[in-house]
From TrEMBL:
<keyword id="KW-0326">Glycosidase</keyword>
<dbReference type="InterPro" id="IPR017853">
    <property type="entry name" value="GH"/>
</dbReference>
<keyword id="KW-0378">Hydrolase</keyword>
<dbReference type="InterPro" id="IPR008979">
    <property type="entry name" value="Galactose-bd-like_sf"/>
</dbReference>
<protein>
    <recommendedName>
        <fullName>beta-galactosidase</fullName>
        <ecNumber>3.2.1.23</ecNumber>
    </recommendedName>
</protein>
<dbReference type="InterPro" id="IPR050347">
    <property type="entry name" value="Bact_Beta-galactosidase"/>
</dbReference>
<dbReference type="InterPro" id="IPR036156">
    <property type="entry name" value="Beta-gal/glucu_dom_sf"/>
</dbReference>
<dbReference type="GO" id="GO:0016787">
    <property type="term" value="F:hydrolase activity"/>
</dbReference>
Length: 905
């Protein structure tokens, strides 16, 4: 490039909703880059979407942009129009069609040599957001970016000399300290290329020597020497260079990082050192504009937030970000995995629903991604799409083609492909999935339609889970049942489908790194204060509808408590999920869904950050890094709930991918909430590889008179590596004492008589006969109730329970003997799991809910586990728990005694 002309600014606009392309009237203007929606062009949309944010100026069709351009403004010998980020485009000059381009992921570039120096011409660009050759995944989905129309990146004429470098590929060799530079030299058969490089973001400045190379037959193939002291790129030291190729004054500039991203056994390596992928899902949700930014500053902002939460990896769900995202990741040391914009089935010719045009488009899109972005050191991995089905042969061929073209990256067939029938194909460099067979689960939570459920949903909270015995099992696992016709029902996107299936390989053990897919997905109740943040064309009308529904049930005053208490439970679930991953020594990494709210697919508020990447106030980045970082110190123990005067035992260990941490001293302390130190252990250790068993600890718990919080704190002395666990010590209760209390299964005649005497009666219903109730489920709801309830019903599987934890009146005297937090904590697990929550929507009269179950924001039932009301001069207390089962645990006995003491008094 020798110069360029910026074409951003005001353009004439014509919206052609009918896609006629005739009788165009340019009676409006728009400032580009922009989208028609963000510029508030077109008809105002009055719809109120509940499954995703509402695009208030939604437009689908042809958008025509027109501008007079002076082609004499650039002195050049080769001229191109560059449209950085757009949809399907057609370019016209003075009404003459120049061409059409369809890439959703990469720039549209048009040759305009015939117009060099010819003065002012009328340029018209038609942008279409209909008629795509593929559905586009999250690139075009209303759940994420919306199906916007416009041009959102650079719009410019670029002038070149006749001889200039195109299709530049840079191959960094950290062993020989060289960069192989290949390029097509357009407009020049033979000549000289001068290559130089300079580090620009490191404290250790390094400038290799300027070197000259000959190119022949329009091809440059040069081996540029970086020098023995060249700087390497990684997540810990993201050292970068600007490499320049000068062809007789026409200079192209490229960012490079000297790195080698490979695999070794079941691990990823960066420059020969093992690393662990701490990944974040990204569907490019930007609720202020509804499209991904193309400016570097915004990507740096959001990626710095992700880094502050311990992330070193981005997985782009069925989409590819603009170049500024790769540059930001280059600068911050983030390992990127873009995906083809595809979520569907790959078929072979002759198979049902075969769409060769779509598959050809997707393959070409992948090559475009590699050509335009492949030089960036952050571009480490590439995936063929999300939850794909179909032909393994075609998938393998596609990956093979990419590998032959560009071997600088690692490739995978997709994320969670073939679901219950996972496999590794020949060209897979790593595996991404949620299970290795039907009951070999490698994440902690699942939707009911994908059951069996995960350990966090079914097991009592504990700090002892890992996936190593599942990855390499000692016995054969079971397989999903297949219908007689050889088919199986699967969740398919936001619906379901029936697919052909081969027998599941219950002995499937990948020999490539395993990345556990979309872990987490614990939702929180909406924060209605967030509504005011939607100042752009996207509006949170879904939040408005949810607020109205809650108000109709008379529960709106509880909204803030619902948000905070559901969020606190979600954080507990995330901590347990993340630590299970960091304990798993055979895993290569994880991809969480997500630290950020997902605005669509039923409105899935699964983040500890909102959709704007702002904190929800549920956990700080420092607290999150306790269990998600390049080094995590952990304890293994069987229960967070302990009985007084018992022995608490834990095993301490370190997951360490921090290069400079070779040894240290562990300090382990157990402290009561009043500050009393129960015990402290100090232990020196040598970090043995990436996983170190430090020591076992044992503490004798004191007697307590009430439920008492204790904190187990771990720290590596002199570092920022620390962690903590909130434990609950329960007083010793040998047996329950229900003497003197009036306890019934229902309000019968005897109970009625006692009430008329002003007595308090306790109703403990027979749960097997309790109608109008919901089963007890301690774990946070998965993703969002609405979407997965519909899918479960389509698949004729059980509905999800759909509850979101407890809201507890901790000051109520019924809980005087069962102290705790306002929200769910592990001491409530036995109680919740052995209960049913009564639906009080139609309750007549006044009531006081003592322990409330938070329902999801789609259903909004008024749910209670423990409530009371006045009747006939007395008081009725209803506790919908199974006392027989609760009497078998210390916390259950303590809870029963507390409730009985209240009704007895």
């Amino acid at each position: 490039m020798i110069n360029k002309l910026d074409l951003s600014g005001e353009w004439l606009l014509c919206l052609d909703k009918e896609c006629k392309g005739t009788d165009l009237v340019f009676d409006d203007t728009i400032n580009l880059p922009n989208t028609t929606s963000n510029a508030k062009k077109g008809e105002y949309n009055t719809e109120r979407e509940t499954g995703f944010l509402t695009d208030t100026y939604k437009f689908e069709g042809f958008a025509w942009f027109r501008k007079n351009v002076d082609f004499s403004a650039l002195q050049c010998e080769n001229l191109k129009l560059y449209l950085e980020r757009t949809r399907i485009t057609e370019l016209y000059i003075d009404g003459k069609k120049i061409g059409r381009q369809e890439s959703l992921c990469t720039p549209h570039i048009y040759d305009l040599n015939e117009y060099i120096g010819t003065g002012i011409h009328e340029m018209t660009i038609c942008v279409s957001n209909v008629g795509y050759k593929t559905k586009g995944g999250h690139l075009t989905s209303p759940d994420t970016q919306t199906n916007w129309n416009g041009i959102t990146g650079r719009i410019e004429l670029i002038g070149y000399k006749n001889a200039h470098a195109e299709n530049v590929m840079l191959w960094c060799d950290i062993h020989n300290k060289t960069v192989r530079v290949t390029a097509n030299i357009t407009g020049g058969k033979s000549g000289k290329a001068v290559i130089s490089a300079e580090s620009f973001n490191s404290e250790k400045n390094h400038t290799p020597a300027v070197q000259s190379f000959e190119y022949k037959d329009g091809k440059l193939d040069a081996l540029y020497k970086m020098g023995d002291d060249c700087l390497l790129w990684s997540e810990h030291e993201p050292n970068l260079y600007k490499l320049r190729i000068d062809i007789y004054g026409d200079v192209s500039e490229h960012i490079i990082g000297m790195r080698e991203f490979r695999t070794e056994g079941g691990k990823f390596t960066i420059n020969g050192e093992k690393t662990f992928l701490r990944g974040k899902h990204d569907g490019m949700i930007f609720p202020k504009t509804a499209f991904a930014p193309t400016d570097l500053e915004e990507w740096l902002r959001i990626m710095k937030i992700s880094k502050s939460y311990g992330m070193n990896h981005y997985r782009y769900h069925t989409c590819c970000p603009p170049e500024s995202a790769f540059i930001a990741a280059d600068m911050l040391g983030i390992y990127m995995e873009p995906q083809l914009p595809f979520w569907g089935t790959i078929t072979e010719e002759g198979e049902e629903n075969h769409n060769q045009e779509e598959q050809d488009f997707l393959v070409e899109e992948g090559f475009n991604m590699l050509k335009f972005f492949g030089n960036h050191p952050s571009y480490c991995m590439m995936s063929m799409g999300n939850e794909l089905w179909g032909s393994k042969k075609i998938l393998n061929d596609i990956i093979g083609g990419y590998k032959k073209f560009d071997s600088r990256h690692l490739y995978t067939q997709g994320s969670n492909n073939f679901q219950w029938f996972p496999n590794v194909i020949e060209n897979d460099d790593f595996f991404v999935g949620v299970r290795l067979a039907n009951d070999r689960l490698i994440r902690g939570s699942y939707a009911m339609c994908d059951a069996p459920l995960g350990h966090i949903q079914t097991d009592k909270p504990a700090a002892n889970h890992d996936y190593d015995s599942i990855i390499r099992p000692k016995k054969q696992a079971s397989s999903t049942e297949i219908s007689e016709d050889g088919t199986v029902q699967i969740q398919y996107g936001t619906t379901m489908k029936t697919v052909k299936a081969s027998d599941a390989d219950a002995d499937f053990i990948p020999e490539v790194p395993i990345v556990t897919h979309e872990i987490g997905q614990y939702e929180t109740y909406p924060n209605f204060k967030e509504i005011e943040k939607y100042t752009g064309s996207l509006k949170a009308r879904n939040f408005e509808v949810f607020r109205e529904r809650l108000d109709e049930k008379g529960l709106l005053p509880l909204a803030e408590d619902y948000f905070k208490c559901s969020g606190k439970l979600a954080v507990q679930c995330y901590k347990e999920e993340m630590e299970a991953v960091f304990r798993s020594r055979l895993l290569g990494g994880f991809q969480i869904l997500d630290i950020q709210d997902f605005s669509g697919q039923g409105t899935a508020l699964v983040g500890v950050l909102d959709a704007f990447m702002d904190s929800k106030g549920l956990i700080t980045d420092s607290e999150w890094r306790e269990f998600c970082n390049d080094a995590v110190v952990m304890a293994r123990f069987d229960s967070y709930v302990l009985e007084a005067v018992s022995s608490f035992k834990a095993h301490t260990e370190l997951c360490n991918y921090r290069p400079d941490l070779k040894d240290g001293k562990l300090i382990c302390t157990l402290t009561l909430e009043n500050g009393d130190v129960i015990g402290k252990v100090k232990k020196n250790f040598v970090a043995e590889g990436n996983y170190t068993d430090i020591c076992d600890v044992e503490f004798t718990l004191p007697q307590v008179t009430k439920n008492t919080k204790a904190v187990l704190a771990l720290e590596i002395e002199g570092t920022d590596i620390h962690n903590h666990y909130d434990l609950w010590v329960i007083p010793t209760v040998e047996k329950t004492d229900i003497s003197g209390a009036y306890i019934f299964n229902e309000v019968n005649e005897e109970a009625e008589s006692l009430l008329k005497q002003g007595k308090t009666v306790l109703i403990v219903p027979d749960l097997s006969k309790l109608e109008n109730s919901i089963e007890g489920f301690y774990c946070q709801d998965f993703w969002c109730y609405h979407m997965f309830c519909i899918i479960s019903q389509m698949m004729k599987k059980p509905d999800p329970v759909g509850t979101m934890g407890l809201l507890i009146d901790t000051d109520h005297p019924a809980l005087a003997g069962f102290a705790g937090e306002k929200y769910s904590t592990p001491q409530w697990w036995e109680i919740v799991q052995n209960s049913r929550s009564v639906i009080l929507d139609d309750f007549k009269g006044e009531k006081n809910v003592i322990v409330r179950t938070i329902d999801n924001f789609d259903r909004n039932h008024d749910l209670s586990l423990l409530y009371e009301y006045e009747k006939d001069g007395g008081k009725v207390v209803v506790c919908s728990c199974d006392f027989d089962k609760l009497s078998k645990s210390p916390e259950g006995r303590a809870f029963i005694n507390s409730v009985v003491d209240y009704v007895r008094n």
